[in-house]
């Protein structure tokens, strides 16, 4: 098919690929043809790939149920419903944004502004929903304003919205898998369509500018700006890849998705090279973790997929007679995914047996069909170390080194941890992995807000319950575990262990041998008291109410941890801040500062405590150097725990 023919056929192929009443063969054939079109025409096919994403998101929104009015729900269920509804409302707006982007980009690429008679290759597609309304506006305007950067931003938001809605919805995950989302994700990950589209725009702008300058010696400033190639914005392709990889990790819970990925050797090779940091422009830590997690989910469950399909598996960890296949979710990040210990245990064991059986013949255990590289280690590290961030933190930014131990800049109270840790050394991955090679390193992600102005978030119990489910699915808790936490992350871990005990998940509780608390508000935080007292102004999030000083729930969790420590099952190391933290900056250098977690709340009453001199709350978990006590004490703590195991 030519490009023009491909654009015309998209109005037929996309409804076939995403049709509720299409047969499986029809959907499969349409998806294959569309994948060839995207492969053949690259940046020129962006309107098709973007239209495909729009239709997928629109279909998912159509099947999302709205809770009935007057339905009585438990308090935590109501909060979760608010989060779901917030995601749906955001997705509706993003669907409209995507539809407008498709129409405008198609109009610009096909020259509608210059000559539009109502018939062009994508006219049939744009006459369908959800593109019909923006298409009518285009007919009146005839001057579409769109570029590669705008289109890429719309695509990025679309992928994020699709992931947020589908992450816990097995029905919608199966739906988008049937409707060809893997074809789109493969293209987003392995293609460079938006970069190439931006390059084409820059070239066209430079040619237009040359023609204009040749025509007249005086060029108006407005014309220069319009045709200046330096004004062409760079599309956020790296972010698109990251979120596409996240959605792929979520989808890898489905056996039929794993079957498609494992059969695609080029895709598996790309994921392996991405996880190892060998693909230029793909060094994002989250992207590389998603790539490794997807490979582990796919390859470790490959042998058990036939059994799970027969039993209609639910997409959690695959359990066979003598083994558990870990299932890594998008909330669990693998630190240093290029490390040799991130391999499927069965494949590692079979490779070692091959080495032993062929040693006498000087054979080579590596195989051209293997996706994983050879591994010289026969056993994985004996300990799992898991990092858990706090309020407004992140799985990576909370654990970067700082230039000094006090925050010199401040932002609004909603951005408490934004200023520190944006750049710099990620010390768990660069320092700890080298100084303490006896552990697999994980870092967790969960959404928190100080107030409801920035969106709905789950309360402490719901966050812990969600993370507990993810940890169990990943088989974390079957080996010795150490949690390293900052601020509210410590309370999340305490609640998580308390709930694990209540649900008889004794492996995780008994195998948790240590917890490190960086400025954890064991008995509440002054930061939580302020928005609670000013509730009408700051609208505190549900989590904040649980952090208030004197909270009985916090005392109950602390007593639970005290008993574990008293029985010798758990070792504890706590760090305490000593400086106030700037929260809101005013005119003339004035700033509202607060001691967020005082020493009487940072020390739980058992275990060891380290007082960090001249250190505020944000930077208590961000060492300045390898000699910083906030790093050396944690390293010594881990070494002592390792020695006790042996």
TrEMBL record:
Signal peptide (UniProt feature, chain positions): none
Bias-annotated ranges (Low complexity): 365-378
Region (Disordered): 215-235, 345-382
Full protein name: GPI inositol-deacylase
Residue spans of biased composition, Polar residues class: 219-228
Highest taxon above the source species: Eukaryota
